[in-house]
Amino acid sequence: MEKELRLMKGNEAVAEAAIRAGTDGYFGYPITPQSEILEYLMEAKPYETTGMVVLQAESEVAAINMVYGGAACGKKVMTTSSSPGISLKQEGITYIAGAELPCLIVNVVRGGPGLGTIQPAQSDYFQATKGGGHGDYHLIVLAPASVQEMADFVELSFDLAFKYRNPVMMLSDGAIGQMMEKVWLSPQKERSKTVPGWATTGKPPTRERIIITSLDLDPNAQERFNQKLVAKYNEIREKEVRYEEFQLEDAEYILVAYGTSARVCQKSVQLARNEGIKVGLLRPITLFPFPSKRLNELAGKAKMMFSIEMSAGQMVEDVLLSVNGKVPVYHFGRMGGIVTAPEEVVEFLKSKIGG
Amino acid sequence: MAEVTGIKEIIKPENLVYKKTKLMTDKVLSYCPGCGHGTAHRILAEIIDEEGLQSETIGICPVGCSVLLYEFIDIDWQEAAHGRAPALATAIKRLLPEKFVFTYQGDGDLAAIGTAETIHACNRGENILIIFINNGIYGMTGGQMAPTTLPGMRSSTSPYGRDVKIMGNPLKMTDIVATLLGTYYVTRQSVHTPANVKKTKKAMRKAVQYQKLNKGTCFIEIVSNCPSNWKMTPVQSNKWMEENMFPYYPLGDLKIPAEQITQKTSNSEKND
Question: Would you say domain A4-202+229-237 falls under CATH 3.40.50.1370?
Answer without folding.
Answer: no
